[in-house]
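Entry for the shared binder. Reason: the reviewer on the internal report wants the predicted structure included alongside the sequence.
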Amino acid sequence: MVISTKNKNLSFKIDAPPSKSIYHRELIIRFLCGDFMHLSPKDGDNEDILATKAVLSALYSATHSQDTDSPNYNPKYLADEGTSVLLACNESGSTLRFMIPVAAALILGKYSSKKISDTKVTKLIFETKGRLFDRPLDELEDALRPHGINISKDSSNRTIIVEGEMTPGEYTIDGSISSQYISGLLMALTLFDAKCSIHITGSLKSIHYIELTQDVLEKYGVPASFSDMTYYPTTNGYANSLLSTEPVPEELKNFKVEGDWSNGAFLLCMKRWSSIEVTNLREDSKQGDRAILDYLSLADSEDAPKEITWDCSDIPDITPYMAMVAPFEFAKVTFTGISRLRIKESDRVMATREQLSAIGVKTEETEDTLTVYEYESPSKEELTEPIRLSSYNDHRMAMCAILLAVILKKDVEIDSVECLKKSFPEFLGYLEKYFK
């Protein structure tokens, strides 16, 4: 698709989509509290949210085998005469990392009293697409193995197999790799009727995302405390959640998800070179990607240094957008803490460098840094249009290519924009209306 911005003053109003981070957590925690009313796909649901809804629907089918008349029950999720459940994660890393511990505790958990779910399932089969199968799970495997859970991979059909009997107790995990492992464990261990804890070794990365999990747990009356690098979930929490009270508090009968600062960051970067109006973003949000405001504010400062260093270890999702803005606002920006960008939907360090190289921007990388230098406008002969960029089948990189088109006011041809469905499907409509 050719993104055409030449001789255009983009001017439209656009809502940031619902926060994926919060939406995942709300769906999972409400499900574990016994609310099964939000599993059907809704207009505007992105592919990652649809994946989480599909996995929760599969867990419902596995734990409610007698409830065949329910719209949530579907036998397609069950295999091997009902002893296996198929959990289709698509390309959603969040779904996989949250749901491995959650599904293991729900289906394979060992309880001192009555088992929490009535099921004969003994094997969880997580189905994957794209690069998801290849993304590492080592730290989560290490945390679950001492508690009876084994994770293996079947490369013949790119599935991830989870088996065993998950026991409560004291869990230990490296906090420097993925906050989603910790969030998944927090949601999972709240199921157990025995005391559990999660001790963190190493440094805590993306702590804001763990705080989002704590906020949603507390919202439903099942808080998880934190002290001395250890999290303490509420024992048997979901059985006594606020959703189990009568009457259910009015504010909990349904839920509305605030706007997403990850996609909002893309829109706010685009706003700098257009006249668009961005709405549905809470400035008091606890989402870590709200840090884009600090970055853009520094760029606006009259006394801003021309060369800066920015720690991105807690904000990997918005780092590519920041890198696209960098050559047009600073002489040199060194982004640190970027190693995890290589194991996203694409290698985002490589992809970012290739996109910037296509417009003549010099970049450098080390294992954990990406340096971007100032843009020097090439001659017309040096930069032919349309500028051809790849999305790498990665929603963030597709947005980066669109952002470059808006900044440069030039036509940019992107090999595919369908990957936007992963997090921002509504934006495809804006491309059709305003970017042709």
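Summary line for the report: The chain has twelve helices and 18 strands.
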